[in-house]
Amino acid sequence: MPDRAPSRGLRVTGLAVSRGGRAILRGVDFAVEHRSTLAMIGASGSGKTTLLRALAGLGDVAEGGIEVDRRRVDRLPAHRRGIVYLNQEPLLFPHLDVRDNVAFGLRLRRWDAARIAAVVDPLIAALGLQGLDARDPATLSGGERQRVAFGRALAVEPAVLLLDEPFASLDPATRLSMQTLFRQVAGSRGITAIFVTHDLKECLRVGDRFAAIRDGACRLYADRAAFCADPANGVADEVAFWEAAATPPRRD
Amino acid sequence: MRAERARPLRRSATLALTAAFLAPVALLLVWSFAGRWPWPAPLPSRWRASAWIDLAGTGGLGAAALRSLGIATTVAFAATGLGFVTCRSAAEARSRDVLRLLLHLPFALSPVVLGVGLEYSFLRAGLAGRTAGVVLAQGMLAYAYALILLSGLWNARTRAYLEGAATLGAAPRQGWVLVLLPIARPLLVLCFVQTFLISWFDYALVLLIGGGRVVTLTTSLYQFLLSGDLRLAAASALLLLLPPLVALAAHRHLRPTAFAADPGF
Questions:
Q1: Does A145 contact B at CB distance below 8 Å?
Q2: Is A91 in CB contact (< 8 Å) with chain B?
């Protein structure tokens, strides 16, 4: 069971997903407080993506309860959950320019142009996409595409944002800048998010709280120190590696 | 240096190919206006526009052309529309390997064989000798081609687009209308053109199912050739060439999509 039940945010109880008779996730319980980011680490095949897809209402049928801001959403279709799923690959709609991609979710709500502009313009500025508004997504770099996808997700002000290794395909420098941008925007806009990654450093940079997923089971840590203290997460190994790497070799 | 040397060669090859394509078309054009063309004169001694006048009229060649246009448009719309809504099931079917094999049968099964196979059933059903029968028979062939062409739509990427749209708030219908259809448009246009041309150029099914009572441009062309009326045969042939020429001219406006290179099943 979650260690505390937030009044707002995401609450998951007893979530289980099986595929072809095989359990992919079992008894997953956790909560994400409103306006905070839960960074979740896990190796490939541990069930990270399955968990996010189950929360978003995509793919395999899940058992268990999912509450968003105290509203049960686990029986709702994906488009009515208020949970936006951001894929590893920023799948921008190729028939829309950058601005229309960001405005996509707002157009679905039949907002008028002025109302859309009031949301989209500041977002484009906050994400450093000025001047790219009219660009075809195919002409953007990987980092720019990911920023547009991020903007498209933020524009609809999701109750929960799920990020599935969103920066995994970026080069290290762009990845670092995207992590910083995510922290800034998530903080200023009060985003409730689950950020899944297999990169320990990324996990520690983006998270407010931490969890690890292994073999279909999820472990939520009380705080950063508890997460770092768990040898299974490899923080001590990482520190030892960098200490050894920084030490000049002894010449006998 | 090598590229510069290759340029005149490429230009000559392009010119030769263009000439090889245009020469028969020019010959057909001359024939269609020929009044009297005694052997071995290089050009007709008299010119007449009667073939084209006949074409402009409602009877004869004009009616056949209009019927061909109507049949091909109906077949293309039906095959593309039906193919679009059913290609997902075909791509996601459990036995899709067997299905794929069956769908590729039209490549092995010529329209003549299909026509012979369908003739008896169509006779019994009262469809033989009727335009509706020809549309149905051609539609069966065109539908299989449409499914093959459109099967590339249903891949992991398309599903991810639709899922992404859904989590942004798009209901399934909105996902189809606002995401899938615009993304699929080039492929749908390509499918429409291909199935249109399958019907437009079909001779065997019109002959076997239409039984001589359904007259189209292809059967007219053959009749004109048999009767020795080369002016009308040439005019028919030029008309037959018109849709593919239009499609070729419009081809550059069809933007390629990821689907074309990624067959879904």
A1: no
A2: yes
